[in-house]
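All the exercises in this workshop are built on plain-text protein records. A learned vocabulary of local backbone shapes supplies the integers on the structure line. Once this layout is familiar, the rest of the handout is easier to follow. An example says more than a description, so a record of this kind follows:
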Amino acid sequence: MNQQIIFNDDICFDDHQQGWIFTGLLSGERINIFIKSKKHTELNNALKFDLEELVEQWLEENEPPTNNKISL
């Protein structure tokens, strides 16, 4: 299923959970996204693109979550 998601510009690294947290809009619904990762010292456009690409690939293979949370 081809899903279109619009990512918000609110990405940040959560030291406590050891991952990137950001949100997006999918079919008008806000989706909370968490991607476990080693800490990166600087968020740049390449990293941001890679994280968004991971979510898009996940959505191609999975149905949108009913709880509006994606954890990778």
Summary: The chain has a mean pLDDT of 91. The beta strands are 5-7, 12-14, 19-26, 29-36, 69-71.
